[in-house]
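Risk register update: the risk of archive-format incompatibility is retired. Evidence:
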Amino acid sequence: MGGRSSKRMPGGPVHLDEHGGVVHEGDAQLSSAHPHGRSRRRRRVGEIGPGAGSAVAPPADQVGQRRVAGDLVVEPLAVEMVGHPAVPARTGKLAAASAEQGDQEGAHALAMLQRDAAMPDRIAIRSNRELAPYIDHTLLKPGATREELVKLCDEARTYGFATVCVASHNVALCARLVQGSRTRPISVVGFPSGTETTEAKVAEAREAITAGAAEIDMVIHVGRLKAKDYAYVERDIRAVVGATRPCLVKVILETGALDRDEKVIGCALAKAAGAAFVKTSTGFGPGGATVEDVALMRQVVGEDFGVKASGGVRTAADARKMLEAGANRLGASASVAIVCRPD
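Archived output:
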């Protein structure tokens, strides 16, 4: 393999046949190889931060899924970095021109610019207040009141949280409340079960985008994934991605309900379907984010893709551990406590 280094997780390999079925059960060998044969250096928490200079994930049709020594490797093709913000090679002015021209390549370029805006680059986190741009400030309980939503948005504006994450029917109010700030409103879809039909998820996602959502956090159909109906899961994700482009889509795996193979395959399907992030948990399922799951997800999707740790992130120490493990977005309802804790 040209001197590439691969890191083997404990256990045997996962093999997928042409139809996405598991041939041999066991843990996965996950390649962290760079397309040019150099191994990627693991990030440290002091190297992660919001802003410019991040890699841009390629569109879904440029994601290579290759067999290497019988193991599943999900590897993005090389993307040339051109100034700030980073854009794929040869896109040039296509992002600006896409609205007028309506061409597919321009739409891809615009989607990539959206992804770049959400991907942190590597600056030192010197204080807990500097965790704020990583946090999706979240309020998803079914009985959330208007007063609670106003408070959520006021806190987000005050502390500079990346987003406010709310149910789709609360997006319009939050979009008005955070207007003029750096905070963006985002919506969950198919929440929390993920068992809605694809058509229902697409309709909910479109309504949320129309109301002002900048990103969509959709729940995977866990039952279909566990039944190895991978074609359904991929189509489900791809439909929401296509309906909301160029807005970012995060795919919630509900990792507490999955075994290791299912986590690996869920990440691979999300990336192949054109999503921008994988996300650990809804916060309403079994378990939440763990350092081990975040590290595994990062290793599967590579460096040019988003990983969101959500569920049980309650302290600054939790947040820093998740970032160190490979997350570049955090979902939390205890966001104020996280950033206000003395360093």
